[in-house]
Amino acid sequence: MSSVQKVDFLSTGIKLVGDVFLPPGYSSNTKYPAVIIAHPMTGVREQAPHVYSKVLTLAGFICLTFDAAYQGESEGQPRYLEDPAQRAEDVRAGVTYLSLRKDVDPERIGALVATVSGACTGRMTREGLVEGMGGPEMLQQSIKAANEARLTEAKGQQDPVSPAFPPTVQDAPPEYPPIAKELAEYYKTPRGQHECAPGLFATRSADLLANFDAYAFNYLISPRPLFMIAGADASTKYYSEDAMTSAPCSKSFGRR
Question: What is the set of domains in the chain, with CATH numbers?
């Protein structure tokens, strides 16, 4: 069984709190390969990242999980803000932290980003969680709400928040795509529920998300190979398909 160290590190001046999972038989005199694992939108490290860490440490990796800025135990105001540029910086800061550890080989550090932490949140905000679900009118409404939220914050009032998914499976409207129910089945049940992750995001996140393009520099991945896995029936499979199309390198796309 792997042991766990609670750690913290800075990301653009914001203190992030994380956990380092050590592999069985750990020796401080060995330099291990490492993986930093980012949690999904509105999530915390104790959810999916801890699950992945417990598996990867068995393969000999040191794993770093962390609460992103504005989430969980990490600092940052307003709470529950979803800023994809900051999230990317959080991952880079985590890589820096791992690189400075004496038990990590800085030339063998990888990143595992779960769901929206690794997807193009900009396209999701502009077009909808499921392809074709959104559009210009919905985007305009989201940006208008974000502008109003900024004014509310400037007046010193409580920052408005919005739910990321239905509070229960039963509350999901019939017209919602299956993924909405799947999110509720995980994040709103004992399977994945956590007291630090109420499933909310700051309403003023919308314009930050809409302006972000996670795949703009995918061409720089080359000549490194790229391998992606997506569920054959996943509602968000098109995120991975877009990423593969924009990466002119040796690549493989697996469907499970």
Answer: 3-118 (3.40.50.1820), 129-211 (1.10.10.800)
